[in-house]
Amino acid sequence: MNEFERLTRMSDSVKAAYPKGTRILLIKMGDDPRPIPSNTRGTVDLVDDMATVHCTFDNGRKLGLAYGVDSYRKLTEQEIEDENKTICIEETTDELLDETESSIQTMGM
Hints:
The protein is of the alpha+beta class and 109 residues long. The protein has 2 helices and 5 strands.
């Protein structure tokens, strides 16, 4: 197998493991002048032909994670469920605050 075939197989494997929309956890970045903090979560946008996993992180940054240099993993189903529960709680809290604010304004306070 030549180098091109090896790299193609590697990128195909990473593409299969991290399809668009996959939630990940950044464990540690390699040598980056402006690293994203460890334990930051993100969503995979795409994996390119060099097996770089391009993500949008929850802190708003977008960055490609280099295969073999940066450490990351998929979130487990339980972690994703916990995220979804937290989002639902936050949305419900926001709705309640909006309703309370509206009631206060209606009462003329």
